[in-house]
Amino acid sequence: MKTLARLFQTLLALLLAIGIAGQPAFAQNKIVRVKDIARVQGVTGNQLVGYGVVVGLQGSGDSTSVIFTSQTIQNILQSFGISVSQTAVRTRDVAAVIVTATLPPFAHSGDNVDVVVSEMGDATSLQGGTLVLTELRAANNQVYATAQGPVSVGGFVAGFGGATINSNFTGAGRIPNGAVIARDMITPLTSDPSSFNYVLTTPDYKTAANLAATLNGHFGPRTAVALDAETIHVSLPQRYVGEPVQFLADADDLAFIQDETARVVMNERTGTVVFGGDIKLAPCAIAHGDLTITITTQNEVVQPNPFASGNTALQQNTTVQANEKGKRLTFVAGAATLASVVRALNALGVSPRDLISIVQALRDAGSLQADLEVM
């Protein structure tokens, strides 16, 4: 009996696993949490910027033609009680830089944030350099942080005698936790203690309505109302008035269905094509052909006639060939899914750059039922 019981339990577990694995993938992908697709309006970071210098460069800093770098070195030395003329500053181990950082919401004094250091003169590399103490200011011109530390460029430049080799970009780098916040960032969670607004990261009318319905179903009717495709106004229930943090903590893990917009994003510079959502195509026919032009040049040495006067000459023989191949006509049935679209375009043997032209033509013909975004 125990053996039969264990066998029955194993069979039941297997059937449950098969049932779970057999669920449609799209149903799982569209279920999201509130915290993943919405934020509280007004709770955002603030950008900081500052001007400084990076020292310790091995001859890869700014040249003497960059006047503001020489002036900065002169001012730094004067702050330490050393007076020098601008013409006496000849170092190539210093580079003027712009320092940027993002101050997160609810930041407090003593917290650390990363900074990005970017050269602004003619320095060739910031590799091995150290940022000197730099003030970081916000849009109101108040100092909110100070930055200092070694710069990590994530690459290198090496060479000698005019021959160099480089990896990645060395004109900019990061300083992890390089900035220390000097004052608290006052970010009110909400100006009204009884209400606030959720803002969707991707505006969509149906998603906004689904979020409002989910909040109403969990916290009670009239808790939330969708104002537009991006904004959901929330009125705190009586038990949460004055405690918006507790309401957000309870609401963040609520799951609901996010509606996806059919969209195609293309980058013509890199040849990247990304399909998002359920792509649909109306009935259409696609023809694609490649025109290949090959130009070949062969150099031959021509000897003069031994019985006549002349010199040895170099003759160029150029051959031009044009070949149009791969021309086919493919029919795509109506209401095609993304998988059908990919199979049809793969059948044509198109490259990503060719796919961009085809997708644009499908959109112009009215067959592509999706938003088209060209970067």
- The end-to-end distance, rounded to whole angstroms, is 67 Å
**How many β strands by DSSP?**
21
Helix content: 10-25%
Structural class: alpha+beta
Numbering strands along the chain, what is their spatial order in the largest sheet?
3-4-5-10-7-6
Domains, number:
3
SSE string, helix = H, strand = E?
A: HHEHEEHEEEEEEEEHEEHEEEEEEHHEE
Q: Give a short account of the largest sheet.
A: 6 strands, antiparallel, barrel
Sheet-strand content, in percent, reads 35-45%
Low-confidence stretches: 1-29
Number of helices: 8
Radius of gyration: 32 Å
Average of per-residue pLDDT values: 78
* Shape assignment: flat
Summary, kept brief:
This protein is of the alpha+beta class. It contains eight helices and 21 strands. It has a six-stranded antiparallel beta barrel. Strands 2-11-13-12 form a four-stranded antiparallel sheet.
Protein architecture, described:
- The protein has eight helices and 21 strands.
- The strands form seven sheets. A six-stranded antiparallel β-barrel has the order 3-4-5-10-7-6. A four-stranded antiparallel beta sheet has the order 2-11-13-12. The chain has a three-stranded mixed beta sheet with strand order 16-15-21, with helices on one face.
- The protein has 375 residues and is an alpha+beta fold.
- The radius of gyration is 32 Å and the shape is flat.
- It has three domains: 76 residues, Dipeptide-binding Protein, Domain 1 (Dipeptide-binding Protein, domain 1, Alpha-Beta Complex); 136 residues, no CATH class; 103 residues, no CATH class.
- The longest helix is centred in the first third of the chain and has 20 residues.
